[in-house]
């Protein structure tokens, strides 16, 4: 059997059921009606007037990490990166890895001109870019034990907590009003070294303490828990008995403010073992089971770190990568509980644990980027852009009735309404009546 035959077996097996659920889910969960009432300067309804509605941005978040912002080896590449990012995404995951943000105690790299650390652009630089293009930033991550500075003890829990509180406080004071979403803690189910050698990581209060601290310093922000990709795997997933599910439920039952549930989706199997994912990560029935189960917790879900491997630069392998993305993104976009899908590395050759451009080591071996190392677009990039700017987009016209109201149905998000030569910006929001009055 070919690679294609191997990995699409369950997508093909459940094709009709999946397409039906995706179609219905998108209509039900991602679209709604807008009622636009036009009035004149005296407040009287304006009948028989045509309006044009053009969607500019989705409410649903679709993004990538922004770890290579101004990190590439030429200005030409940096400019291509910035253009490709803004053209495809409305969300960016910013690096707040403690060991790289504050390699020297008391000297955090906040400012845009801070000393460079590979794959760790300074927060101020990232925010300047995001705010320029209307991209929603998210912080990754407040507590992540695999990226703890050397100057923080790994054995003295009291020392660790004291220094973490200083970090939380400083980040909140500087960024809480500019970044809404904060991943509080990451990968508590990764129990192998170096995690397991950290005294606080193995302590009983690790989840409770961090979320209580986050609530103290980020009272108005979205607090997110994040976990590695095993949450989708058959050997971890056991419906409401799943370890991650139970950990979150226990936290919620104790009153922890876990606002959002993050679930990574890295397919980090080497090419010969890729078919190991057919049972779960490449199985629409299994994917819906995971989403339906975690929806029961009553919190929105984010697919936080997505890597779909191409493995090579052949046309067929790149086409398969794009088709997998089409299938997976359609499932996630259709599901009521999902609020965000976030791809991980935009460009091949700049992934973790590898020198740039070396495709033989680290996460580079998967060729999981959406652009090639030379910045040319892969079919995977074109697919994501197509989904959110062509397939799942609303551009329509309507006409006001005798009461001055025009109605249209569209995807939730930001719109420009044009009436004659005048333009008005509105938002079509989920879970809202969306009755909007415009005075001409």
Automatic annotation (TrEMBL):
Protein's name in the database: Endo-1,4-beta-xylanase
Keywords annotated in UniProt: Carbohydrate metabolism, Hydrolase, Polysaccharide degradation
GO BP annotations listed: polysaccharide catabolic process
One Pfam family named in its UniProt record: Glyco_hydro_10
GO MF term set: hydrolase activity, hydrolyzing O-glycosyl compounds
Hydrolase listed as a keyword: yes
PANTHER family listed in its UniProt record: ENDO-1,4-BETA-XYLANASE 1 (PTHR31490:SF1), GLYCOSYL HYDROLASE (PTHR31490)
InterPro entries to which the protein is assigned, alphabetical: GH, GH10, GH10_dom
GH10 domain residues: 63-387
Organism the protein comes from: Qingrenia yutianensis
